[in-house]
Amino acid sequence: MAALGSAAAQGRLARAGRALWGWRARRGLGQDAGAAAGKAARPAFGDEAVQNLLYRMTGLNLQKVFRPVKKQLKPPKYKLMTEAQLEEATRKAIEEAKEKLTMPPVLNEREPIDDVLADDKILEGTETTKYVFTDLTYSIPHRERFIVVREPNGVLRKATWEERDRMIQIFFPKEGRRVIPPVIFKDEHLVTVFQQDRHEDILNMCIAQFEPDSPDYIRVHHRTYDDIEKHAKYDLLRSTRHFGGMVWYLVNRKQTDGLLIDMINRDLLDDATCLVTLYHMLHPECQSAKEAKEGKLQGVDLIKVFVKTESQKEGYVQLALQAYQEAMATSTAS
Q: What is the pLDDT of residue 61?
């Protein structure tokens, strides 16, 4: 592997690299979001209205956000506070918790790189290994960094995404990321992780290891969401930064019945209403979206229309909704 020498040479290569590179990573938010030019715009993961709904459904459980983590034991610290000091400390804790719940981006998978820059037959056979040339200019964003590979057969090509990730990690190490991804991210090992209910841990590791538009990042997230949906373990991600991404994934695929039942069973009717509202935003052509818009429905009425026209588990959702209404009636009567 070779780095570039003089500052002048670095500058020339940087300018040439940006001209040649022309990277076309897909920047649209959401695995299924983003409409082509000329088509009606579809809500994206980063839209303010979408983010507001996802944050409301995520919840803010301070005990979960600040739960103890495994580390070296230290003596506990105690503080005596006045009421005003306690209120201020609580306010700061809430603000810090909101920062911890910032959702990671949801991007479409990046397009592969297979561009050949030159084919110098005269160099064929002169070397037996590949040479990777990396522009080490600090001011250049990693996405625009010029990285090329000289093959033993004389071909000069742009580095693949995997090669780029390795080179960038070698020269610009990122904490928590390895040059070679751990085997725990392989599908056969994910099964064991899921059996131990470590869904949040694997997603945190995934965010540290991979870029958000890499195939492995998307694959691990989808496998995790699918396992949570299969076993109805939604609460494992509630009040974490990953809950919004899971909801977005399930709503896009119209797999919301299990989550809707879970919300109703936990008396989270506002969350259930937000879920249906988000569903209507992403699927405005559905029958319940049209009826809800015409009747200006809200709350339980909104959920009932959705269950009647869109749910694949209508009976189960109706039972959960009936139990909720009976519990509310009993509570009101007493």
A: 81
